[in-house]
Automatic annotation (TrEMBL):
<protein>
    <recommendedName>
        <fullName>arginase</fullName>
        <ecNumber>3.5.3.1</ecNumber>
    </recommendedName>
</protein>
<dbReference type="GO" id="GO:0004053">
    <property type="term" value="F:arginase activity"/>
</dbReference>
<feature type="binding site">
    <location>
        <position position="183"/>
    </location>
    <ligand>
        <name>Mn(2+)</name>
    </ligand>
</feature>
<dbReference type="GO" id="GO:0033389">
    <property type="term" value="P:putrescine biosynthetic process from arginine, via agmatine"/>
</dbReference>
<dbReference type="InterPro" id="IPR020855">
    <property type="entry name" value="Ureohydrolase_Mn_BS"/>
</dbReference>
<dbReference type="GO" id="GO:0046872">
    <property type="term" value="F:metal ion binding"/>
</dbReference>
<feature type="binding site">
    <location>
        <position position="181"/>
    </location>
    <ligand>
        <name>Mn(2+)</name>
    </ligand>
</feature>
<feature type="binding site">
    <location>
        <position position="268"/>
    </location>
    <ligand>
        <name>Mn(2+)</name>
    </ligand>
</feature>
<feature type="binding site">
    <location>
        <position position="266"/>
    </location>
    <ligand>
        <name>Mn(2+)</name>
    </ligand>
</feature>
<keyword id="KW-0378">Hydrolase</keyword>
<dbReference type="InterPro" id="IPR006035">
    <property type="entry name" value="Ureohydrolase"/>
</dbReference>
<dbReference type="InterPro" id="IPR023696">
    <property type="entry name" value="Ureohydrolase_dom_sf"/>
</dbReference>
<feature type="binding site">
    <location>
        <position position="157"/>
    </location>
    <ligand>
        <name>Mn(2+)</name>
    </ligand>
</feature>
<feature type="binding site">
    <location>
        <position position="185"/>
    </location>
    <ligand>
        <name>Mn(2+)</name>
    </ligand>
</feature>
<comment type="similarity">
    <text>Belongs to the arginase family. Agmatinase subfamily.</text>
</comment>
<keyword id="KW-0479">Metal-binding</keyword>
<dbReference type="GO" id="GO:0008783">
    <property type="term" value="F:agmatinase activity"/>
</dbReference>
Amino acid sequence: MSTIMQRGIHYLQRLNTANVPAALIEKGQNRVIDASLTLIRERAKLKGELVRALGGVVASTSLLGVPLGHNSSFLQGPAFAPPRIREAIWCGSTNSSTEEGKELNDPRVLTDVGDVPVQEIRDCGVEDDRLMNVISESVKLVMEEDPLRPLVLGGDHSISFPVVRAVSEKLGGPVDILHLDAHPDIYDAFEGNKYSHASSFARIMEGGYARRLLQVGLRSITNEGREQGKRFGVEQYEMRTFSRDRHILENLKLGDGVKGVYVSVDVDCLDPAFAPGVSHIEPGGLSFRDVLNILHNLQADVVAADVVEFNPQRDTVDGMTAMVAAKLVRELTAKISK
Ligand SMILES: [Mn+2]
């Protein structure tokens, strides 16, 4: 693997600020952040106005891309995923109907507010504490525009922390989370990074943003992962017992007594035979139909969701995993919109 892929987006420059007043740099960074949030706010407002003018829906999915890959411990390709997923959603090889008959062409079902300009903001020297706040703010801007509900396109899994934080803060209480993944992503910190993609669910549980956390598809879990799971009361369903647990997982009812349900899908929950375009190839996973059965049968008011960890740099030349990620997005859209 090339060092560029390991070290990340190679065109980002470190700002050399040795002889420049910090206040000057910070002012400029704040202007860039304001401009970024303004574009998302205005796009969300326009899409919200459109959906409300058409009328007749209580929940409408809106895509928000978060092209962030630098909190990956291995490869950074997920930063390039959102445009590839969008391209595959509208690919001419399929139609605009979801399996259960929702029409994605209908803006009452699906709109798009674009990407958080993560790389542009990082290029201005903004560090992760502030970047994570920008992601949370962006999610809240979508949620401002009732009936829009955010479906976030990652990005590596570190983005689930600022997204869930925003959803919980905006709704005024914890949510239940259904988390499909080969990994529990619950290390206290990974390689010293508290924002690591392997630590997002530790941050979520510490913050009190989730009442129940169900992790499904696990098959790469260490002792620390199991201990952290116990510490936070996580319901961990491992692949080695999937045939026994299948009936429970295909008949889930979540969210009673909380503000709603959040669904986080790491594409590597799938067996690599179905989704080779991920950073962490982990055999022994779910089939695509297993995942759809779990999602289709889930009884829940899904308030927001994410699809993360698709790595286009690892995909087949014909973009098979892009289609897989896109279908996850399409079917989650059908779940959210009503
Ligand atoms: Mn994973």
